[in-house]
């Protein structure tokens, strides 16, 4: 959810400028806060009692806006994933002030020093969050996962659940988790490999002391528990997407794969990072060999994530199969309604269809109007991520002016060259001519943390 963390508060001085530049709100309007306080008092009345089911949550230790809880059981050779999603729609009225504010925001925005939530904390971190402090309303999707990893939606219901534990990625043990947690995740990953998916979840970066009085960017390796947890969400999103597509409705996440030029740029990035990419391997095959625990490989994962045009949202259209190239599947977002506006409507549609009911008209209309709203929100989030990384790169390189770095030209045009520094996970620009794949030397002229810019000049 964050591209970069700042455990040493190195970026503290520059982050307020980013918040101001991108209009990141500090709080909510008074009328929205007041409405949220009232909504939080609502007593669920359309939900069955599932408090006896052993749900748990698994998230970063500091997280309090918990969208998902899960329980797993066997059904012959299949595994049943009971995936509880926060029932945000129970608290948010269509057309009300909370709803209107959420449409303005689109998503929760994350910065190293905090976030700007989609919904007020009394809901997102209280009444609607699947915390273990008491029973919570949820939409429970039952996803049947076959031995080959194929997920299908067996049912969906509004339910009251009670999480048994708030588990954290960095401290969870096998004993805390359902017995088949690892097996279910392995099935999903095997299915990804079988269909040629190239989904990557690059690790976060952190600004840490370098032991020489300065700082450096380091990668925080993804934990096994984090990757396995992501597989549960993926299975649910795939199952929901298949259900919606089969019933000729929905909002889907689509993404084209990188074109030939983008793949060549990535090959140059790999060269700059010292990674051997055999010519016979496709991009998905190469990505499958990488480990986020290795800094150079993690840096490539981040470059690969940014190589395409990005994912977008599209409503159902007759005769069109919505496709997400990285997932190698039809895909929808349904599992994070506390943090993404679109998920609230996808959940409502899937819940209706699974129970033989018509999709509410307000949901069908939302599928048509959500794409530009989500595109704007995603674009702002992406620009914030880029600004934070630019700030971090200038911060760690400040004081190294005059130093010479080896780099590889990733791409070039009439305006100059895009280069990958060979010893740092820094992708930047320099005014020079050259051919992609060429190794050059550049001198750092200036690192401006206020403007968040690096100025390099070519020396050879």
Automatic annotation (TrEMBL):
<dbReference type="Pfam" id="PF00773">
    <property type="entry name" value="RNB"/>
</dbReference>
<dbReference type="InterPro" id="IPR040596">
    <property type="entry name" value="RNase_II_C_S1"/>
</dbReference>
<feature type="domain" description="RNB">
    <location>
        <begin position="47"/>
        <end position="356"/>
    </location>
</feature>
<dbReference type="InterPro" id="IPR050180">
    <property type="entry name" value="RNR_Ribonuclease"/>
</dbReference>
<dbReference type="InterPro" id="IPR012340">
    <property type="entry name" value="NA-bd_OB-fold"/>
</dbReference>
<protein>
    <submittedName>
        <fullName>Ribonuclease R</fullName>
    </submittedName>
</protein>
<dbReference type="Pfam" id="PF18614">
    <property type="entry name" value="RNase_II_C_S1"/>
</dbReference>
<dbReference type="InterPro" id="IPR001900">
    <property type="entry name" value="RNase_II/R"/>
</dbReference>
């Amino acid at each position: 959810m964050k591209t970069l963390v700042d455990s040493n508060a190195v970026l503290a001085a520059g982050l307020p400028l980013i918040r101001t530049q991108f209009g990141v709100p500090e709080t909510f309007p008074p009328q929205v806060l007041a409405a949220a306080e009232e909504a939080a008092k609502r007593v669920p009345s359309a939900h069955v009692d599932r408090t006896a089911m052993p749900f748990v949550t698994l998230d970063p230790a500091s997280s309090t806006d918990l969208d998902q809880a899960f329980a797993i059981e066997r059904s012959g050779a299949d595994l049943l994933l009971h995936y509880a999603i926060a029932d945000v729609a129970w608290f948010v009225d269509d057309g009300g002030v909370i709803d209107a504010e959420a449409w303005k925001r689109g998503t929760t925005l994350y910065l190293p020093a905090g976030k700007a939530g989609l919904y007020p904390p009394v809901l997102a971190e209280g009444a609607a969050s699947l915390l273990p402090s008491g029973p919570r309303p949820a939409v429970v999707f039952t996803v049947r996962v076959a031995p080959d990893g194929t997920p299908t939606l067996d049912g969906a219901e509004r339910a009251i659940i009670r999480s048994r534990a708030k588990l954290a990625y960095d401290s969870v043990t096998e004993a805390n988790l359902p017995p088949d947690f690892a097996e279910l995740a392995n099935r999903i990953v095997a299915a990804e490999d079988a269909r040629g998916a190239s989904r990557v979840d690059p690790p976060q970066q952190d600004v840490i002391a370098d032991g020489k009085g300065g700082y450096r960017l380091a990668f925080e390796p993804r934990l096994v528990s984090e990757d396995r947890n992501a597989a549960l969400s993926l299975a649910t999103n795939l199952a929901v997407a298949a259900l919606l597509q089969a019933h000729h409705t929905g909002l889907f996440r689509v993404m084209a794969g990188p074109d030939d030029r983008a793949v060549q740029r990535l090959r140059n990035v790999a060269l700059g990072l010292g990674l051997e990419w055999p010519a016979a391997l496709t991009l998905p095959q190469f990505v499958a060999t990488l480990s986020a625990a290795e800094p150079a490989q993690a840096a490539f994962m981040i470059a690969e994530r940014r190589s395409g045009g990005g994912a977008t949202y599209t409503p159902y259209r007759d005769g069109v199969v919505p496709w997400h190239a990285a997932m190698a599947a039809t895909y929808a977002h349904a599992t994070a309604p506390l943090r993404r506006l679109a998920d609230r409507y996808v959940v409502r549609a899937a819940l209706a269809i699974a129970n033989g009911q018509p999709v509410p008209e307000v949901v069908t209309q939302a599928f048509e109007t959500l794409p530009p709203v989500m595109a704007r929100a995603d674009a702002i989030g992406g620009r914030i991520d880029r600004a934070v990384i630019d700030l971090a790169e200038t911060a760690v390189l400040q004081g190294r002016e005059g130093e010479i770095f080896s780099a590889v030209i990733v791409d070039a045009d009439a305006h100059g060259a895009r280069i990958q520094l060979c010893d740092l996970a820094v992708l930047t620009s320099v005014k020079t001519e050259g051919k992609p794949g060429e190794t050059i030397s550049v001198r750092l002229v200036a690192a401006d943390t206020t403007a968040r810019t690096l100025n390099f000049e070519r020396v050879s």
